[in-house]
Design a protein that fits this description.
heterodimer, A: mainly alpha, MetI-like fold, 11 helices, 0% strand, B: mainly alpha, two-stranded antiparallel ribbon, 71% helix, disordered C terminus
């Protein structure tokens, strides 16, 4: 048994090193004073200063956060309804189609989603005159469409483990449907909605491919900006930007996990 | 307990039904309609115009709509080896990466599942954390490690293992590495979900009765975790086929992946009908694995449990 446990431990340690080596390396090199990426020129914060003065990066970041906030919120509302509907309504007409449309985005290649949505926006523009320009709105629509699938999956998983007699009791006691929904159902699925919102927010902030298709001139999201820079190679200011993002995300995830563990309803957060 | 159709008040069902209309219409318009359009464009002739393709319906003189369809774009795909090689290349890259993910992810998932309490939560969190950090930045991070003057080459040269820097980037090796790295959490999570639920007494009992460890693994542990294996493999394999960012940043000129060919067809050649045909064929290739995924997804919810 001993031998096997050591083997397993070695593989696991290798796996974790593999997962974190690149991340740590980027963070270390973001403090490198040298312009040459690999030559260590001493500790410095100059790339962070350069980042703060970079207007393009800042405005792209603002745009990305706006899109992520809007699309995560709408995706959470609609994804929750779909999750509820698929769980509660039993058989109804169009259920198979809805199930298909809500699970397919989970595995659809981004590049196909991007191309097909761009074609839709162009066709709509011809037929009904909307959208006239592509940018924040079309990117948000694209992000809502794939994010709501993730929210629906998470909400459904949560509902599968929920006690429905609470709702029945509330209804029997004369609660009106909407009120029962707000007072009983929403608090129960709230952790799933929060997880879903966070996932939708992250997915939106992370998307390069779909945004590249459905965006137009003048609307460059942060990932699009990063992608166009790193295509040409490693640059120290992107290292600094990556470090900022990695630290923010890590703090968020660790905080969410910590809160999730403290509240019994939190589940796997 | 499915649905609770009989016990549930009619009012609540009606309310939910109406509420479902908006997301339903949304998905019809923004998810389904685009596929109809891409199908339509894939059968149009290319035009030097904006949009660069012929309309599906030409309004002829008497107001009759004449269907304008052509399969030329599909025939074009198979005229030479270019696209076929890219499809096959993608399938190969995705299959090999999935296998590598499984070989690394399985022991990791098993290791995590065998830990207790607090440590298990921390180890799981450490797998999930990179998944939340930007995909693009994680691929970018490898560029800093792999380039000719990158961390790995610097360390190897300094320690005297090599005299000349190795070409670690802009080749298939780097793409495999990038895919395995990026998708490893997708493999580990469904595997972990299965292995955690497994009754370990079965393993102990088999060992007590004198079973060999190899037999215990292949006869008990692996069959019991099979849904996790399938779920994890599909979650890696399907997106890996259409992957664009990893081959674009880490791949070489000779890296054959359809995602990048499709991007070039669209943004560089600007041949939208051919790009649409490439997408439709890619979707056809993915139909089987996607349907398989949907079946297990609706059955036992293997998937995103982050």
């Amino acid at each position: 048994m001993r031998q096997r446990a050591t083997g397993l431990l070695t593989v696991a340690a290798f796996g974790y090193a593999f997962l974190y080596l690149p991340i740590v390396s980027v963070m270390v090199y973001s403090f490198n004073d040298s312009r040459l990426v690999t030559l260590w020129g001493g500790f410095s914060l100059r790339w962070y200063r350069a980042l703060l003065e970079n207007e393009a990066v800042l405005s792209a970041a603002v745009l990305s956060v706006q899109i992520a906030l809007a699309s995560a919120t709408v995706a959470t509302l609609m994804g929750t309804l779909v999750g509820l509907g698929l769980h509660r309504l039993g058989r109804f007409r169009g259920r198979t189609l809805l199930t298909g449309m809500i699970t397919a985005p989970l595995v659809m290649p981004e590049i196909i989603t991007g191309i097909s949505l761009l074609f839709l926006f162009i066709s709509l523009g011809e037929w009904i005159g909307w959208p006239t320009t592509r940018g924040a709105t079309t990117i948000s629509i694209a992000h809502i469409t794939f994010s709501m699938a993730y929210v629906a999956v998470i909400v459904r998983a949560r509902l599968a483990g929920m006690d429905e007699s609470l709702e029945d009791a509330a209804m029997d006691l004369g609660g009106r449907p909407l009120q029962v929904f707000i007072d009983v159902t929403v608090p129960t699925i709230a952790p799933a909605m929060i997880s879903g919102w966070l996932l939708a927010f992250t997915l939106s902030l992370d998307d390069v491919v779909i945004a590249s298709f459905v965006s137009g001139p003048g609307a460059t999201t942060l990932p699009m900006l990063i992608f166009s820079k790193v295509k040409l190679g490693v640059t120290p200011d992107i290292n600094a930007l990556a470090t900022v993002i990695i630290l923010l995300v890590s703090a968020g995830v660790i905080a969410a996990a910590w809160i999730g563990r403290r509240t019994p309803a939190g589940g796997s957060g | 307990m499915k649905g609770g159709v009989n016990t549930m008040g009619d009012g609540r069902r009606r309310w939910l039904r109406w509420a479902l209309v908006t997301p339903y219409l949304w998905l019809l318009l923004f998810f389904l309609a685009p596929f109809v359009i891409i199908l339509k464009i894939s059968m149009a002739d290319p035009l030097v115009a904006l949009p660069p393709f012929t309309p599906l319906l030409d309004w002829a003189q008497q107001g009759w709509a004449r269907l304008h369809l052509t399969l030329d774009n599909y025939l074009f795909l198979f005229q030479d080896n270019y696209y076929v090689m890219h499809y096959l290349g993608s399938l190969k890259m995705a299959a090999v990466s999935t296998l590598l993910c499984l070989l690394l992810g399985y022991p990791m998932a098993y290791f995590i599942a065998r830990q207790s309490g607090r440590r298990r939560h921390l180890l799981l969190l450490a797998v999930i954390l990179p998944f939340w950090i930007s995909f693009l930045l994680r691929v970018y991070a490898w560029m800093g490690l792999l380039n000719t003057r990158g961390v790995i080459n610097t360390v190897l040269m300094w320690s005297g293992v090599i005299d000349e820097p190795l070409q670690l980037m802009y080749n298939d090796f780097a793409v495999y590495l990038g895919i395995v790295y990026s998708y490893l959490p997708f493999m580990i999570l469904p595997l972990y979900a299965r292995l955690e639920r497994m009754d370990h007494d079965l393993v102990d009992a088999a060992l007590d009765l004198g079973a060999r460890r190899r037999d215990v693994f292949f006869d008990i542990i692996l069959p019991l975790s099979m849904p996790g294996v399938i779920g994890g493999c599909l979650l890696v394999f399907i997106p890996a086929i259409g992957e664009f960012i990893i081959p674009a940043l880490l791949g070489g000129a000779d890296t054959l992946m359809i995602g990048r060919a499709l991007w070039d067809e669209f943004f560089i050649n600007r041949d939208w009908p051919v790009a649409s045909a490439v997408s439709v064929v890619l979707l056809l290739i993915l139909v089987l694995p996607i349907m398989w995924f949907q079946r297990i997804q609706s059955r036992d919810g293997v998937g995103v449990r982050a």
